[in-house]
């Protein structure tokens, strides 16, 4: 598993009890799917998930689904889960490649089930979603073309989500959600976990700059609903022709929250950088794709460099907290954070002016080339 996703999954796990993750057997899955959806899967394949339990179900040659069994902690917030499901359907209906839900035989988009997974009876929210074709973007060559497409899709996604109406939209105001770029100061109580590590001072400096240079300017950013986790494992792609790829799927809306357009761009850039050997040029291509849909305003452009650094800091700091909660994973987890530390320190050492010059000048050139090709 690539380090960016592993770190994110490990970090999320520290916020929940180990017993909250479901652990259904294949027999339990078969019985559940038959009872709730009147389907009999011929094949059941586990899918990766740290907090929840996901299965790829094959019912027939032309019928494939994903069964999602949410952890018992998140299952206590069905309103948020229903809103995430609504967002996926909203995007799908407007032509974006998001999953849709298959209702239960009683017409529900999700069902709260009492299941014994070895910890006694607990309540788990169960949903059945369409299975999207494609492979994760990590498994294809990381070309300027696919990075451009990732930036463009992220911008289109947030533009469409901003049109969404729902009576419970207020639940997306997640004021204590540590993964929101609105909440960078929430990292401060965990900084002591980095004592003795030289990167601690970089993280402290980034947080201070956020408080002095970004927070006062939030009012100048354009608001939207963020997917919040547009990373290399949540983007599916398919070949478009012999040399290009198209995005065929957007997955995992669990980090969705109210935010700002520039937040989504910063998150996308960070995750596209983490696995790329020419990481500094990644932002150029992602930015060019983004600005083909939503050109940044002056305040957003000025904050982008710092917001990318903030996303790296979120990943690194919460990872240290995870090590405390799960010391058995320390060696593996700390190895996987080295890439993030290297990117953060390099961006910090180069400085805002140098990095922005590389990003914005080259993004303008990329946009020109894309326009010529069209």
Automatic annotation (TrEMBL):
Subcellular location: Cytoplasm
The protein's Enzyme Commission number: 2.7.1.81
Pfam families tied to this protein: APH (PF01636)
Entry keyword annotation includes Kinase: yes
Single annotated GO MF: hydroxylysine kinase activity
Stated family: Belongs to the aminoglycoside phosphotransferase family.
Protein name: Hydroxylysine kinase
Native source organism of the sequence: Oncorhynchus kisutch
């Amino acid at each position: 598993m690539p380090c960016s996703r592993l770190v994110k999954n490990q970090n999320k796990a520290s916020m929940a009890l180990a017993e909250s993750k479901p652990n259904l057997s294949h027999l339990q899955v078969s019985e559940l799917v038959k009872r709730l959806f009147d389907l009999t899967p011929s094949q059941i394949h586990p899918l990766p998930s740290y907090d929840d339990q996901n299965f790829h179900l094959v019912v027939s040659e032309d019928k494939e689904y994903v069964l999602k069994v949410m952890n018992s902690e998140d299952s206590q917030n069905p309103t948020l889960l229903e809103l995430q499901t609504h967002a996926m359907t909203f995007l799908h209906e407007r032509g974006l490649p998001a999953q849709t839900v298959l209702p239960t035989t009683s017409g529900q988009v999700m069902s709260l089930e009492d299941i014994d997974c070895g910890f006694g009876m607990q309540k788990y929210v169960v949903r059945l979603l369409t299975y999207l074709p494609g492979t994760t973007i990590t498994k294809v060559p990381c070309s300027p073309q696919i990075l451009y497409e990732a930036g463009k899709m992220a911008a289109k996604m947030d533009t469409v989500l901003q049109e969404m109406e729902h009576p419970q939209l207020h639940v997306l105001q997640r004021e204590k959600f540590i993964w929101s770029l609105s909440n960078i100061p929430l990292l401060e109580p965990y900084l002591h976990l980095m004592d003795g590590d030289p990167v601690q001072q970089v993280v402290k400096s980034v947080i201070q700059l956020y408080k002095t240079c970004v927070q006062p300017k939030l009012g100048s950013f354009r608001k939207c609903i963020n997917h919040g986790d547009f990373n290399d494992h949540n983007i599916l792609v398919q070949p478009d022709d012999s040399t290009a790829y198209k995005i065929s799927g957007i997955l995992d809306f669990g980090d969705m929250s109210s935010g700002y357009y520039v937040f989504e761009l910063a998150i996308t850039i960070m995750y596209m950088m983490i696995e790329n050997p020419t990481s500094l040029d990644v932002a150029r291509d992602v930015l060019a794709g983004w600005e083909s849909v939503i050109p940044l305003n002056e305040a957003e452009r000025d904050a982008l460099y710092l917001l990318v650094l903030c996303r790296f800091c979120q990943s690194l700091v919460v990872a240290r907290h995870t090590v405390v909660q799960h010391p058995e994973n320390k060696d593996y987890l700390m190895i996987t954070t080295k890439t993030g530390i290297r990117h953060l320190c390099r961006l910090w050492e180069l400085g805002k002016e140098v990095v922005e010059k590389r990003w914005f000048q080259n993004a303008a050139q990329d946009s020109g080339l894309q326009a010529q090709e069209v």
